[in-house]
Fold this protein.
Amino acid sequence: MSKRARTKAVADSAASAEPVSLHSGQDPELLRRLLRAKDRMDAASHEDWPVQRLARVSHVSAAHFARCFKDAFGVPPHRYLLTRRIERAVALLRDTDMPIIDVAFQTGWKSLGTFGRTFRDITGESPGDIRARQQAATHALESVPHCFVRAAQRPDLTIAVSEKRRREAGAIKAPSKK
């Protein structure tokens, strides 16, 4: 399929409000550009990554980028970035004696309060509690490859943090499971 035909197929799919299936091979060039943006977020998760900046990296519009990123990776770009930041913060809390405020600033938060609240919303524990529990635990995981340990400890952000707060406050009922 030519590049023009792939572009038309993606445009037709977007116009008909059907999700673009990048995994089925419809547009490998777009997937490659999305991966480039994802790699940049992974390499510098402490930086600000608004959708407009990521879209420039991928050479697409901001709306198209956000839609295609979620279709390709299953989560919106901001939620993916939050996951990476929390994952990095947990590693720093576990492996260093760095003050919690320094961990917050090094992982991209501008204030300790926002870091603590978001961290607790995602992990269910405060940064201090995680540090104490992680450092008190015996590390039987030393023989396991680091990438597997990180993947197992990665926070599962299936809903937005603000939606989780509203649900916990009772403002929104959780969707019923059939």
